[in-house]
Every structure is written in C-alpha cells, then in structure tokens.
Amino acid sequence: MKASVPSNCACIAIVVATVVMIGSLWVLGKRSPWSPNFDAPPLTAAVVGTDDGSVVEGARLFHDKGCLNCHLISDQGGRRGPDLSKVADRITRAEMIIRISNGGHNMPAFAGSLRPSELAELVSFLSTRSGNPEHAATEGAAR
Questions:
Q1: Residue 45 backbone phi and psi in degrees, to 5
Q2: What's the whole-model pTM score?
Q3: pLDDT per residue as tens digits for the range 33-43
Q4: Any idea where the domains of the chain sit in the sequence?
Q5: Contact in structure between 70 and 78 (CB atoms under 8 Å)
Q6: Which helix (H) or strand (E) segment is 24 a member of?
Q7: Rounded CA separation 79/115 (Å)
Q8: How far, in Å, CA of 106 to CA of 83, rounded?
Q9: Contact, 70 vs 118, CB < 8 A?
C-alpha cells in the first residue's frame, strides 16, 4: 500500500516542527541566565588588579575550579549564582570560608575538593572584590 500524500506531508511537518522546537529550546537554554557559562575564559589581569601571588592564584582557581561558570566578576563569567564583584562588601573572610566549604542555596559544597591552601587563595582573591578601594587595600594588607 502507498501512503497518501497528505499523511507524508503531515509526517514531514511534525519532524520539522520537532527539530525547530528542540533547536529553539537549546538556544534559549544556552543564552539563559540560569544556565552556567561553561565557556567562561579566565579573568584578565586588569580584573584581578594585582600581581600579589595569593590573589592571582586565587583568581586562577576561581576559573579552574568552575566558580566562574556560575558567578560574575566585573561582568566576566556566568549568571547562575550571585555577582561576586563586590562580595567583600557583603560578607567577611570567615563567611566566605563557610560558604565555599559548605555551599548553600544552589551552590555545591567545595570542602571535599579544595585543599586548605586553595581555599585560602580563593578567599584572598574574593577579599579584594570590593567597591571600596580602601577596603580592598586593607584586605590586601591583612593577608
């Protein structure tokens, strides 16, 4: 038996519509703020803002450990988590250690995947993220 022309057209239309819908949803998901940015490049030297070893290493770890996939620093990175460009104005070093170690909300805990030295370097970097230049200078001296 031969299939009728209208039923062939309907099958083709369904396949095309399905491909278009899946493609559209993929593009929306890739561009959405709730989707991590797995293509985030490392932070530039201008954003890091210092050549201090522990801060630079903390910025490198911020990228390498995947923090930058979800968090923004000076408009670089992902939008899944909070913008951390001025995180030192909101929480203390001790609170940073607790949040990174234990996670919270949608953030995973990193205590099991960070050495103590790596955690200290991440906190050194994040402690320089302030909208107040005097605060950043004080934190730099506190390390």
A1: -60, -35
A2: 0.73
A3: 777 888 899 99
A4: 1-31, 45-142
A5: yes
A6: helix 5-31
A7: 26
A8: 14
A9: no
